[in-house]
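The freezer alarm interrupted the setup, so I double-checked each line after restarting. Inputs confirmed:
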Amino acid sequence: MNRLIKKRSEKAGLPPGTLVHIGEKKTEKAKITIIDYDETQFEEKEAKTIEECFPFKDKPTTTWINIEGVHELAIIEKIGEHFGLHPLLLEDVANTEQRPKMEDYGEYIFIVLKMLFYPPDPADDEKANEVKAEQVSLILGSNFVISFQEGIKGDVFDPVRERIRNGKGRTRKMKSDYLAYALVDAIVDSYFLILEKLGEKIEDTEEELVTNPASETLRGIHHLKREMIFLRKSVWPLREVLSCLERGESSLIHATTRIYLRDVYDHTIQIIDTIETFRDMLSGMLDIYLSSISNKMNQIMKVLTIIATIFIPLTFIVGIYGMNFEYMPELKWRWGYFAVLGIMAIIGVWMLIYFRKKRWL
Amino acid sequence: MNRLIKKRSEKAGLPPGTLVHIGEKKTEKAKITIIDYDETQFEEKEAKTIEECFPFKDKPTTTWINIEGVHELAIIEKIGEHFGLHPLLLEDVANTEQRPKMEDYGEYIFIVLKMLFYPPDPADDEKANEVKAEQVSLILGSNFVISFQEGIKGDVFDPVRERIRNGKGRTRKMKSDYLAYALVDAIVDSYFLILEKLGEKIEDTEEELVTNPASETLRGIHHLKREMIFLRKSVWPLREVLSCLERGESSLIHATTRIYLRDVYDHTIQIIDTIETFRDMLSGMLDIYLSSISNKMNQIMKVLTIIATIFIPLTFIVGIYGMNFEYMPELKWRWGYFAVLGIMAIIGVWMLIYFRKKRWL
Amino acid sequence: MNRLIKKRSEKAGLPPGTLVHIGEKKTEKAKITIIDYDETQFEEKEAKTIEECFPFKDKPTTTWINIEGVHELAIIEKIGEHFGLHPLLLEDVANTEQRPKMEDYGEYIFIVLKMLFYPPDPADDEKANEVKAEQVSLILGSNFVISFQEGIKGDVFDPVRERIRNGKGRTRKMKSDYLAYALVDAIVDSYFLILEKLGEKIEDTEEELVTNPASETLRGIHHLKREMIFLRKSVWPLREVLSCLERGESSLIHATTRIYLRDVYDHTIQIIDTIETFRDMLSGMLDIYLSSISNKMNQIMKVLTIIATIFIPLTFIVGIYGMNFEYMPELKWRWGYFAVLGIMAIIGVWMLIYFRKKRWL
Amino acid sequence: MNRLIKKRSEKAGLPPGTLVHIGEKKTEKAKITIIDYDETQFEEKEAKTIEECFPFKDKPTTTWINIEGVHELAIIEKIGEHFGLHPLLLEDVANTEQRPKMEDYGEYIFIVLKMLFYPPDPADDEKANEVKAEQVSLILGSNFVISFQEGIKGDVFDPVRERIRNGKGRTRKMKSDYLAYALVDAIVDSYFLILEKLGEKIEDTEEELVTNPASETLRGIHHLKREMIFLRKSVWPLREVLSCLERGESSLIHATTRIYLRDVYDHTIQIIDTIETFRDMLSGMLDIYLSSISNKMNQIMKVLTIIATIFIPLTFIVGIYGMNFEYMPELKWRWGYFAVLGIMAIIGVWMLIYFRKKRWL
Amino acid sequence: MNRLIKKRSEKAGLPPGTLVHIGEKKTEKAKITIIDYDETQFEEKEAKTIEECFPFKDKPTTTWINIEGVHELAIIEKIGEHFGLHPLLLEDVANTEQRPKMEDYGEYIFIVLKMLFYPPDPADDEKANEVKAEQVSLILGSNFVISFQEGIKGDVFDPVRERIRNGKGRTRKMKSDYLAYALVDAIVDSYFLILEKLGEKIEDTEEELVTNPASETLRGIHHLKREMIFLRKSVWPLREVLSCLERGESSLIHATTRIYLRDVYDHTIQIIDTIETFRDMLSGMLDIYLSSISNKMNQIMKVLTIIATIFIPLTFIVGIYGMNFEYMPELKWRWGYFAVLGIMAIIGVWMLIYFRKKRWL
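Predicted 3D structure, all chains:
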């Protein structure tokens, strides 16, 4: 639940553009790393103060400034000032409650995305079952990309870093727009991992549904449904973000990069498709569950009815001969007892045959 | 229920533009406050008669006239006359049944919004649980903003007032369009508080659903669903209102303000998103509730069936030996009684084992 | 049911433009009234023959010809001929099965609307509960408005007539397009009355649902649902009709009138909104009803199970001591009877405690 | 079922434009009729060979060639060749699995429609209950209309033929486009008959649902639902077909005819509206049916519970006094028997009162 | 399940354009066949190495290179290099997880489709019941078509090959765009076969539902529903693909071919229509199934209630006369026993009549 809405009440009433950190603080101290490269040169360093990043603004090379920890508002503020970013943009960076979006500010493009992951810590089962999101904000300028993360350890950008370091592939040859694309692509690619895991869980739950449906199965379906709601919220807006980037008129994005953006767009559509398919499957499973409960009830009722229908009439018969009337001729017959036993056996067998014919047995 | 449709039958048949107050009278006497400012000067006063507002119309400074209490039709009428407002607009101000909308009249823009709040009075539980709405009408002219409220005590505009008084921030430097934006923003921001509270309630209800579902839980879900219908009705049209304001061609709204309007628009989308998510969750919860009822029924039926299936056959057996036939050899056996007891014990135990195997126990 | 589709089979195969009256005949003789006015003069009369209307066609004043009773095809035909109306239009006037629509024929605009009302006769309960519709066709020319009604006594146009007679307000000063607007507005306004009544019924049904749900409640919900289907059918198309009128390019409608049309359009949206809200509420109520049935069943089953579970084992015990074995030591014990009574009491009490713990009591 | 998909597997793999007849053969020999007319002259004849039609191609008069029986591929082929029709068009004529569509080939327009009817033969009840479809293909050229039917006896075109013969009305004065319109109009008009019949059935089923819901009622609802699916499939695409015809840019269709096409378009919308209304009603009826089953179950359970709750405790009491303990003081009391009878009567009556209070009786 | 999402986790993090084969390896060695033709000449051969294909690139004739087996990345790479294909396109060819799409790269068009089939092997029932998909990628250049298949034995292209060989029909006379169309058409045509089979299965399941609904029927419905989800995923995007091809501005596709593409587009719409119809029918069937379970339960409950209601009171009566009171006058009556038997018979018969009247029998 707490994943669906975060406290932002403290913010109500503040003037627009006020920096307030909304969300959990996920790291102690913000970490700033700088990667600067062009086709021929490459530099990578960890900055101690944010001021170390400033000289890169005017260098012709492509610079990627990655900041982990958006709760340090001073950093956001200084960067905003030096790079001339709009106050509303900075506000959005600090507020981890954004939905994915893309805003073209002319000289730079602002992109908000959600990085999704399963918490690695397997200690707490319940928690480990839930997809978590980390907000990533990208600011794409003509010669730089600034990325903000919430500060959770580990990200999906390592392969991109590796490619820049090696100088292989296309990345070093191209500009900042390709770098931004590469980061977006890395995030979208990681969604497939989440979907695979969810797919496996759905498979397991379905298996369980067929073999032994219990009320935990229902809870499992419900849990998966909520994961889907959560995922959907993170992924659906991406569609528009990417279509805006691809078809937008910003001069920051070159034609060659657009083809790559179309590719990520395709992936997003594929992910949305899969999410919708999963949703369809889950509601199908709910139907199955409900009718399996009804079937079980039928089963129980049948047992009860068979037992009651056989023995209640028989008990009535033995009751008759338990009466204490003085004049009951049958009681004196030599074979009366055995005759009654026989009659009851016949009734019982006849009823069993009847139930078998009705397919209750 | 009464929140969903108000009496407006008295209005049927009246010529268009006739001022009729529709809605409850929420204050005794209308209260008029005037705030007048530009970058260098600031004036705030409470007006006793509406005529005190009139001189501000032609001053170059930005004026905010706030009127609480739309049941005093004379005030609305006089303002309309002096500021040259269209009769249909005035009619809409007096009718608190409007849906949020935005109308561009050329020289001024008319915006209708809903201020949402939980009634502060905790005396009456039922009522305190319901979101209430107060209609706010804004008229944005080139150098003034007129706002009408229904007159409920307290509003969400205090932080805006404070910012104007202090002269800090952007507000004093900018024109009436920014003021209008600030008011809209304050209202939209306050929606997040409502959503947080609703989120908590949904969380509580879900908790209840898992631990101890009762028929009050169902009523709770139903109540929350209706709150959602109510909220949706107030918030959905906002989307269009804000997109019209942002993309509209009115010269009253300057380019710099448009970026801020895009920000509120974003917030609105976020709120709508959350409402839809809540709706999805609530219908998921209804499914869970219904199947938990079915599960309970199964449980009850199992108990009944187990008891009946064990004891009905045994009662039949003891019935047999209660018969009064003269010739029943078993009755004379020395150990007959204990043999029957033993046989019945065996049957009982065997049945218990059978039920355990069937996982009914 | 009969309200949802009327016999129009007799029409199949006839050439297009053939006048056939479809619908019930609702008055004996058609009634024609003429109101002719401009800013300075006013004339009102009841015409005996349709020919009396013809001279008004070429007068510069605004003329409103109102005809009640579309089953007199001769009248429709003559009017059509004299005013140069298209045969298909006349066909539509006579066929009361139209959906609301607006057609621009260049020299005149054809508008079809539904007047909704509750039949006033309270004799027959069932019928009085159903919203009825009367088709109103408006033909708006440059200096005339012709309105056709089905001929049911009473309409919602009286306030409009009154305003024209008094010469107060805007109506007399403006042209035929404003008159057409006033008529449409009167009809749309009357929908709010219907919605209020339906709202009250929904409220009542909901009250009933909470206090004492019976199968009549279900029928009530079903009935209201069908009223909604009926209303929706009449109101939805209005949205497009009014948006076409407002945004259309017809020179018959002046700019000043368009603002008024926007106002009716707003009302229509509000009505549609309310209808959708009602529909949402009704399906929520159905859910509640169904689960209240399930709850009741649970209640019944609990009573049965408690009784059976307590007494079936006890009956078994008394059965044991009703057996007639010769050697049953307990039977001879001095306190055997009281011991058995005591044991049974203990079992009974223990079971009651068990059920209380399980919250079945 | 067989109505929803027909064998077309034999066609897979054949080159496009290959003539294959898909569908049942519905007549032995194709029948060709020619009607040729203009304002002054009229000729009607039945052609023995298809070649008799060819001379009409170049006559200035309007010619209507009607061919019943699309399984005679030679005819289709020869017509195609002589009138210069595209092979894909001919393929579509022979394949009765088309959905309604309209294709503008420049020199001619190709329209596919479904003629709907109830099979007249009342022998087989089940069959007579099902709407059947016959595919009609129209080819509209500048001076001819060619219509293909599947060859089922009887069509809805007789009134059109009659109007041409009589020379009354508009048809003879106008061109081939008006003829095509008249044919389409005749088909669409006949849909109203189908809807009327379906409306009656729905009414009957609803009546049944209220008075005596049985499992046949459910089957009836299901059957009607499927009829709706079938109808919808035939009618929905018509909307687009007619809107294309009306708004299309083809010079084959004159402005005067377009007004008539708008009229048919209106009818189609009305039909679609009615179908949707019927669907809504049918799903409402399903809800009613399901909850009436639940209500019945409740009723049954109540009977069982009342009987069991009254008699099980009483049987226990009589069981007590059937025990054979030697020392049971009550057994020796003079009025013991009557006292027990009295106590049991009191218990029984008290329970009846309790059930009445609970409204179970 | 495994058909809905395939492992592509191994790909996350790799640079875009990296060739990775995703999907099962379906053949040992890739097979390359070349068909080269124009109106007058024809050549067909199987290539051993991919290099054999290269000379055809610059020949004016139309060449069709068909490669079965996309796991041999070297082949894809070499072709890409020689024909100047974009790396992202090659990546998509190797990844069999694509959704159908069409991309215009200027000099060539890239089309991805799904070939659907039932696995021919009837050994494993479960598997044979599932539709499988094979991805087909087409690259359409000005004088060549390259098609990639996953390598499953057998495809639906044989009729196209045959037509080219024979030189009959249109294919040899036209360019590569017509060849691409022919391939797409062959695939779409084969969907009808799948739909027919599914239609038969739905028919069978419906039959089963009416005659003898068991829990396997439910599983059958569920299975068919999932087949529909799968099919839908493969077919829906086709709609856009074909509409883009038909209406696109690419100079690679000639006007004459566009008419043919419209035909395939029509088929696709028809297929989508049928899928939606099937979905509607399946959810209707689920409703029927659920209510048939409820009906069965009612039936069972009736039997139980009838038996219990008749015999429980009778057992109570015999219990009374089994009591051991010393003073019970009836016991001594001469005809007491027979009187009691008679009374009980009357009660029993009366109850049977009551149940018959209530239509429970």
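Quick read of the result. The longest helix of chain C spans residues 255-320.
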